[in-house]
Amino acid sequence: MENTPSHLPPDDDAQGVVDQQRSIQQQQDSKDAVKSEKDGGAESKKPPVQAGLSPQPEPPLPAQHLEKPGLEADMQMQPRFMAEGYKGSGKLEGLTALVTGGDSGIGRAVAVLFAREGADVAIFYLNEHADAEETKRCIEAEGRRCVLMAGDVKDADFCRKVVEKTVKELGKLDILVNNAAFQAHADSLEDITEVRFDETLRTNVCGYFHMAKAALPHLQRGSCIINTGSVTGLEGSAKLLDYSATKGAIHAFTKSLAKNLLDRGIRVNAVAPGPVWTPLNLADKDAVSIQKFGAASDMKRPAQPEELSPAYVFLASPVCASYITGIVLPVTGSVGA
User: Fold this and answer.
1) N or C: the chain end with fewer CB closer than 10 Å?
2) Residue 45: per-residue pLDDT
3) Which of these is catalytic: 86, 125, 208, 243?
4) Per-residue pLDDT, 214
5) HSE (CB half, 13 Å, CA atoms) of 232?
6) How far apart are CA 79 and CA 134, in angstroms?
7) Of the CATH numbers 3.40.50.720, 3.30.9.10, 3.30.40.10, 1.20.1600.10, which one belongs to the domain with range 62-73+86-331?
């Protein structure tokens, strides 16, 4: 059985997407460079909150900026995704999942826990091959099968090919996790070009739509779709205007699709993360501001991916969430998100 990545469209097409995303980010970086660094005000004297079994990294975080789309392998402080204290119990035994943006960050953490719970996992990503191979290695170390496919979620035809290959290689499809995203900050609405808005909207919203539509013919009663939303879709964000709009759209899409598929016994839910230590954010923020990333949350630190992934397991598992559909589950590190 072939487990090598399927490069359709070709790598040079994916490189075109990468070049466009990098161009958008470089334009914003140039704007940032001409501004003086301003302190955000007096920092609270209260320490970051640790509520887990072991302490997670706290600000100040390593000062680093990545080129888009951002490789997890290049991060100075590697995200924690293995959730070593999490013991699998067969919650997803015999199921098959497809995770977009599963090469790194939240997607990688979700894929690993899905495998630990007994699922085979297909990973759909842009062109971060080194990260995807590491995710595959971790999935196979859990004793499950993994298929890698590289391409652009904006391409509806390729989304169909990804689903078809998943079913061909892994036998079926039970769980779709829409997670791939594009993010670029902007100080004002005037800074958001048509190209930037189109890239954000088509990646974050159209990509979810294409994948759900492609997956639906293969989903059976008891299957589910989980979308990655954001706290920015709940509360808005002054410097992520287009990104926040797409995440709000994802939340509405989640609830609407849940109603649409209710009679078919297919559940649709979303997770709305707060700040999470992933390549997506290091590929957007400058090296100085990333040091304070997550400090504005009530817990005064960012989450690690392993603090998000159990929420996806919960929503995916028919033994945990068979009576839950159409919700947006906030995992934000803040009260009342």
Assistant:
1) N
2) 74
3) 243
4) 98
5) 18
6) 13
7) 3.40.50.720
What are the structure tokens assigned to 336, written together?
């009342």
Spatial contact of 303 and 331, defined as CB atoms under 8 Å apart = yes
Distance CA 71, CA 103 (A): 9
Domain assignments of the chain as residue spans, ordered by start: 62-73+86-331
Given this model, what pLDDT does residue 264 score?
98
Helix (H, G, I), strand (E, B), or coil: what is residue 67?
Answer: coil
- Looking at the DSSP bridge assignments, the partners of residue 227 are 178, 270
User: In this predicted structure, what is the pLDDT of residue 41?
Assistant: 44
What is the pairing mode between strands 120-125 and 224-228?
A: unpaired
Answer whether 0.90 is exceeded by the pTM: no
Q: What parts of the chain have a pLDDT lower than 70?
A: 1-10, 35-44, 337
Give yes or no for a contact between 291 and 60, defined as CB atoms under 8 angstroms apart: yes
State the distance between the two ends of the chain, measured CA to CA, in whole angstroms: 45
Let me know the angle formed at the C-alpha of 206 by 233 and 271, rounded to the nearest 5 degrees.
35
The pLDDT, as a whole number, for residue 31 is 84
323 part of the active site: no
Which tokens in the block code for residue 102? 């599963």
Helices (H), the chain: 11-33, 105-116, 129-141, 156-170, 194-201, 207-215, 231-235, 241-261, 279-282, 309-316, 318-321
Residue carrying structure tokens 């059976």: 220
In this prediction, residue 109 carries a pLDDT of 98
pLDDT confidence of residue 8: 58
pLDDT at 10: 63
